[in-house]
Amino acid sequence: MSKDDTRDRLDRIKQFIASDRKPAKKKTLPSRYLKMADALGGELVESPSGVFCRVTKQYPRGHVFGETVLEPAEITSSVPLASFTVEENEVRAPVRDLVFFDLETTGLGGAGAVAFLAGCGSITPDGFEVRQYLLPDYDDETAVLEKLLEELTDRKTIVSYNGAAFDLNLIRDRMIINRVAREVPSAGHIDLLHSARRLFRRRLGDCTLTNIEREIFGFYRDDDIPGYLIPSVYFDWLASEDLTAMEAVLEHNRLDILALYFLLRKVAGIFETEGSELDHVQDMYSLSRVYGRRRKLDKVTDIYERLDAETIEPLEEDIRWFHSLAFKRSGDWDRAVQLWQNLSGSDSRESYLSCVELAKYFEHRVRDLAQAETLARRALSICPYGKREKSLLDKRLRRLAAKLG
Questions:
Q1: Bridge partners for 91 per DSSP
Q2: Cα 102 from chain centroid?
Q3: Total domain count for the chain?
Q4: Same domain, 267 and 326
Q5: How far apart are CA 81 and CA 337, in angstroms?
């Protein structure tokens, strides 16, 4: 082969190589995708895996949320994880690494449930920002999931409401199905549902996020779309491109995420001030139970001192019983005995338990066997439990009778 022939072949190969390197013609987006972005004030984001609509909203410093004002924490500060757990914890989460997370889905579980809207919020130097990723069609789900991997990294601490039981499990399953990831990465998870129940369930009963908003922050949602209608709004979009109620869905999701920030700040403040900002007896008692579980008896007794000083009506029996045990464990027998004696006059469970404690006290510490026998007989007469508990009291009475001779 001559040199000229070789050069001609190389020139032809170069032409093919050059043509392969030409940029591919940009894919035209469906008109309904553009319609979604325009209607919701969002922007379309394209990736090799698909397209999604991103909607961003800023809540500036001073934004009013019911009776509370948005005053973001310093971006360089941190929150103690002990405020959101039962057990003591020395770990602190940087504020800049908190991601407030909530989903809107096509169902409440099962293989067919898809998260068509994912919202992520974060604290900024100027306030609070919510970023929402809306799925135009099922084919684009991988693009949204890949975007969430940029939001939820192993450096971030996720803040959710019931996310441990629902949101994170659903996202993990969808990532596995779409071969995006096997786990949802994070540095930790704060599920504020459990925090709210520990502190407010005794008083409120209903610890749904909307009720927490009303009762704790005085915030009432206007024209909020009910949760059970949200899947149908997305199905209307898929079937007929109807976006009439989609903005209401986005607002519902935004308010959920914003409420998470206020609730996180509220719970952290309660523990940082050791309950000094609480003004409801039931909430203060709930806090003292958390301290009791952590064996912080000094804080339990401090809360009782405040309850005793600030309440006019007698405290409920279970509250007094709980604190009597704290006094007993801390060695303050005078206060413990005083509470047991106050409780011993009724026929309640707490009265029975108080009589048993008094019988032990008079038998083993005061050596007043006659008084111990009287209290044991009263405990037996009002015992709310079964044969085993009553047999223990019979045994105690026989022992006391033998000692009395």
A1: none
A2: 11
A3: 2
A4: no
A5: 36
pLDDT of residue 24: 46
> How many angstroms separate the most distant Cα atoms in the chain?
129
Is residue 403 within 8 Å of 370, Cβ to Cβ?
no
Shared domain check, 394 and 353: yes
Name beta bridge partners: 127: 60, 124
pLDDT digits (tens, 9 = 90+) for 289-324: 999 999 999 999 999 999 999 988 889 999 999 999
Residue 305 to residue 325: CA distance in whole angstroms: 14
DSSP string for 22-53: SPPPPPPPPHHHHHHHHHHT-EEEEETTEEEE
Low-confidence ranges of the chain (pLDDT < 70): 1-27, 72-73, 110
Same-domain pairing of 251 and 384: no
Alpha carbon of residue 213 to chain centroid: 13
DSSP string of 270-326? Answer: HHHTTTTT---HHHHHHHHHHHHHTT-HHHHHHHHHHHHHH-SSPPPHHHHHHHHHH
Residues 238 and 339 in one domain: no
| pLDDT for res 366 | 94
Residue 339 three-state SS: helix
What one-letter code names the amino acid at 138? Y
What is residue 14's predicted lDDT score, i.e. its pLDDT?
Answer: 53
pTM, two decimals, is 0.89
pLDDT given for residue 87 in this prediction: 87
What is the spatial distance between Cα 347 and Cα 125, in angstroms, rounded to a whole number? 58
**Antiparallel, parallel or unpaired: β 92-94 and 98-105:** unpaired
10 domain residue, yes or no: no
- Nearest of 130, 131, 123 to residue 71 by alpha carbon: 123
E strands, 146-299, are: 157-160, 188-191
Tokens standing for residue 213: 């908003």
First to last CA, the chain: 127
Contacts for 272 with CB less than 8 Å, ≥ 6 apart:
80, 83
Q: Which of 350, 335, 405 is nearest to 383 (CA)?
A: 350
Does a structural domain hold residue 11? no
